[in-house]
Amino acid sequence: VTNPGIQKKIQKELDTVIGGVRQPRLSDRFQLPYMEAFILEMFRHSSFV
Question: Which prosthetic group or cofactor does it need (predicted)?
Answer without folding.
Answer: heme
